[in-house]
Design goal:
4 domains, Dna Ligase, domain 1, 7-stranded mixed β-sheet, alpha/beta, Rossmann fold, D-amino Acid Aminotransferase, Chain A, domain 1, 732 residues, single chain, 20% strand
């Protein structure tokens, strides 16, 4: 029977689940190797069919409502005679009761390894394919991977390698390796099914039994059908020119300007002025008068010159009244700071929808509402509630949480990370996070995109846009708002194992997005991606001022998928010439507290020369200046006779060394194309993650802990692996 006919038949009978026999028939049409089986309608017929199949056999209860057969005792294995079949069929009939429609009989398939595959429709991303460890413990172990359809062979192969039990795909206790091409074919078939028949809501194939010869057979299957999923209502794409206008305004009008310290109407305009914005600034308030020595206009239409951007801070109920003024003045861009719209419930949502309708009619684009603001350091535009002013750079930051976003900006300022632009996206009434990503995709100043995302407005577009951007520049993301999967009417392994956050993370990884676990991860990843060459592999050389630090870092590398290789005899012989004879002769390379400042300069290059090294981490080389300064402070207090000139000279020499070492490392990265990350011995208020070196495209990068350095390097390596998977050679 054709797939469409199988689905039509089930729907006509008011069923949401196909029988196991129908499910396997449907899947056979998509290349799934299902077990050869027959259907019997009585106990005697089951015995006859079993004789024909050849013992031993499996007998199962068959029925549209029998979706949990094992739990109900409706599966009987290894039956070796007609008598055993009759007995088993009788027990099944008694247990199934009125739900029984017949019996399934097939020759017993041998196999000790069980996997599973599935398909379901996600509300945001559409059809999603699943693969993982199967059998009765599938849900308990939850060793699964997901990919958004459509799949190609490359992603299907990569998918099966990502389960924790990947070793079971190889040779196993005298049995052959799994024929992975058969699993790939199954996954591709499920992908096609999901794209061609959206009314197929779920597919659960469990187990995929692996025979001793490595061949794959689907011995159980469940297909859930339903109506075609309703497409989530999404906003139309925003005009990219309109988005650009927000960051390149030559004149700004603050509607709802205030003279009261701390109010939005005061704080935003003072930040813009204090940030050295070079354009015109107009203050608007119906009361008129003067604020901060500037005239206050009673209406937008009273402002004397053209206005590129209106920053609106009046109460939500009064925002609609501003639209005619905006239209008359010819203002196309509005930064709507005001809250009380969709963030305030159904009533606010209706107000927001009416506002958007009126704005579209007037040709106005709204950023927000309920936004913390924007900034473009390249043009000294800092229209934010928080008075933070990071330096110009190449990292674009978009946050669906204004508070978190401005906190990240503060971190960026303190760590020396340059910002291309920042957007607190607010309610995204007209411009969504997908629009911002597409803007930064084509923006020449943007080299890295950093996102804090709680929920995309259009999951499919989000997935497709991040997939495109990642091919040109790295996308770094922190996901907030982790959610539990909703209860599903038709329980299956596939449905039980899928959750909103796991599917979202899978979509991001498939699109090449580098995911952070904390807000600090985003900044560290941004520092690394904006400053260092990508590693070509995962082998890390570690140079440390102390043994314990090296051990911790080596452990972290292994835990995050990096390798710490043994030193070759050649590199050992070269290091022997530099370090005392009692050094460890292993990786990590312990400097055994060697204080000769020339030693780390020599050794870091020796390690980068080594073909067994793809990246290097040095610990305790930088930050000595803080250590020395504190020693000197103690000397001053404790020893009034100390030679202060000598101590001052020591400080100068250490300071010169740290600068020279940073410059040396950057030149070595240029020479060898390998990233180098540092961990500081000590830090003070002047410590920065990034050290800029004049004339170089790379920068020195150092963190306060080994964890931060290793996680940043691991993120870079994961992105390189994705580029390799996609066959992309990214020029940086």
């Amino acid at each position: 029977m054709e797939v469409a006919e199988l689905i039509r038949k089930a729907r006509a009978e008011g069923r949401t689940a196909l029988t196991e026999a129908e499910s396997k028939e449907l899947l056979r049409n998509y290349g799934v190797p299902v077990v050869d089986e027959c259907v019997a309608t009585s106990v005697d017929e089951a015995a006859i069919q079993a004789e024909a199949a050849g013992f031993p056999v499996v007998v199962k209860g068959l029925g549209a409502r029998l979706t949990h057969k094992t739990e109900r005792g409706l599966v009987k294995l290894s039956l070796k005679s007609a008598e055993e079949v009759r007995k088993a069929a009788g027990e099944i009939a008694e247990a199934a009761g009125d739900d029984l429609e017949g019996f399934l009989i097939y020759h017993m398939v041998e196999g000790r390894r069980e996997f599973m595959a599935g398909l379901f429709h996600d509300a945001q991303f559409g059809p999603v394919v699943m693969f993982g460890l199967g059998g009765i413990f599938a849900e308990a172990l939850a060793d699964v991977t997901f990919r958004i359809a459509p799949l190609d062979e490359t992603h299907a192969h990569d998918m099966i390698k990502k389960i924790r039990a990947v070793d079971l795909l190889g040779k196993f206790r005298g049995e052959a390796s799994v024929k992975s091409e058969e699993i790939v074919s199954i996954l591709l078939g499920l992908s096609r099914l999901g794209m061609e028949h959206s009314e197929v809501r779920e597919v659960d194939i469990n187990p995929l039994l692996i025979g001793p010869d490595g061949r794959v057979t689907a011995v159980d299957a469940l297909v859930i059908v339903g109506g075609i999923p309703q497409k989530i209502s999404v906003r139309p794409p925003a005009d990219q020119k309109a988005i650009r206008n927000f960051f390149h305004a030559r004149s700004i009008a603050f509607v709802g300007a205030s003279a009261t310290f701390g109010k939005w109407g005061y704080t935003l305009f003072t930040n813009v002025v204090a940030g050295n914005f070079q354009g015109e600034v107009y203050l608007v308030n119906p009361k008129g008068g003067e604020i901060a020595g500037k005239p206050v206009f009673k209406s937008l239409t009273d402002t004397p010159g053209p206005v590129d951007l209106a920053v609106v801070m009046v109460p939500a109920a009064k925002v609609m009244d501003i639209i005619p003024q905006l239209k008359e003045k010819g203002i196309k861009s509005v930064l709507l700071v005001t809250s009380g719209f969709s963030d305030a419930g159904k009533k606010g949502l209706r107000l927001e929808e009416r506002l958007v309708e009126k704005a579209r009619e007037a040709g106005i684009t709204i950023l927000g509402p309920n936004t913390m603001g924007i900034c473009n350091p390249h043009e000294n535009l800092f229209c934010l509630y928080q008075h933070v002013r990071p330096k110009p750079g190449s990292t674009a930051l978009v946050a669906q949480s204004g508070n978190l976003g401005t906190q990240l900006l503060m971190f960026a300022e303190s760590e020396g990370i340059g910002i291309r632009a920042f957007i607190g996206s607010g309610n995204e009434a007209m411009i969504t996070i997908e629009d911002y990503m597409e803007f930064f995709e084509t923006d020449d100043l943007t080299k890295t995109v950093v996102l804090y995302v709680e929920s995309p407005k259009d999951g499919r577009r989000f997935f497709e846009s991040t997939s495109r951007i990642s091919r040109k520049k790295p996308v770094l993301m922190l996901k907030g708002g982790r959610t539990r999967a909703g209860n599903r009417a038709a329980a299956s392994h596939t449905g039980a194992l899928a959750s909103n956050i796991e599917v979202f993370k899978a979509a991001c990884r498939q699109a090449g997005v580098v995911l952070g676990e904390t807000s600090m991860d985003l900044l560290d990843l941004s520092a690394a991606f904006s400053s260092l060459p990508l590693p070509q592999g995962n082998k890390v050389a570690i140079m440390t001022l102390g043994g314990g630090w090296g051990v911790v870092t080596a452990d972290l590398c292994v835990e995050y998928g990096l390798e710490v290789p043994e030193l070759s005899s050649h590199i050992i012989s070269r290091i022997d010439k530099v370090l005392p004879p009692y050094w460890s002769r292993s990786n990590p390379v312990d400097l055994v507290a060697e204080m000769d400042l020339s030693v780390p300069m020599i050794l870091i290059e020796e390690l980068l020369k080594w073909d067994g090294c793809d990246a290097a981490i040095h610990l305790g080389i930088l930050g000595r200046l803080v250590f020395v300064k504190r020693m000197i402070e103690s000397s001053y207090l404790a020893d009034q006779t100390c030679d202060r000139k000598v101590l001052v000279e020591i400080v100068r020499r250490v300071a010169d060394f740290e600068l020279s070492y940073s410059e040396h490392v950057v030149r070595l990265m240029e020479k060898y194309g390998k990233p180098v990350l540092g961990v500081c011995l000590l830090s003070d208020e002047n410590a920065r993650a990034i050290k800029e070196i004049e004339g170089s495209k790379y920068k020195g990068v150092s963190f306060l802990t080994p964890e931060r350095a290793v996680k940043a390097l691991a993120g870079m390596y994961s992105y390189k692996c994705w580029l390799d998977l996609e066959g992309i050679s990214l020029k940086r």
